[in-house]
Give the backbone structure.
Amino acid sequence: VMWQNIPADETLSNPQVALAGDTLVYILTRESAKVWTGATSSDWSTASNWSDDAVPEADATVRFTDAAATKTVELSSSVPVGVMTFASGDYTLSGGVNLNSFTGKIDVNHLAGTTTWVDTFIERGAYTIYAGAKAILAQEMGYVYKGSFAGEGALELTSGSFTLAAASVGY
């Protein structure tokens, strides 16, 4: 199945398959992503740093692009998102936060650019680094990852330790 003409700020989620007579039907929910603008500061919790002046809510899809004014994101508490996509640009996320403590899992997609995680980590979910993209883990604490891990991009550990206890590894 190939999907075309999906706007850059939208994702397809919640895949369902149904049988309608002799026809197999794919049903996907189309949702708009919250886009980080960094217009005011580096604080995740400041509404004016987001495209629609509202901080993402539980299970939201968030997108980071090269157009943001600020590419450093400070997290003071766990973020309640379901999908984080780094579409372009070089970002740094910091704050010493386990991003999974709210929702249970977060899916991360590194499509392009370099994303540096400073003492901020994702423990469960689907973590994908696409060709040409790079993720840097700068963790003073140990980092244990338990989700699925895949991609053709680069993963670099600059400090601390990284234990891959993933359910599946496709790297």
Observations:
- The chain has a mean pLDDT of 76.
- The longest helix spans residues 100-103.
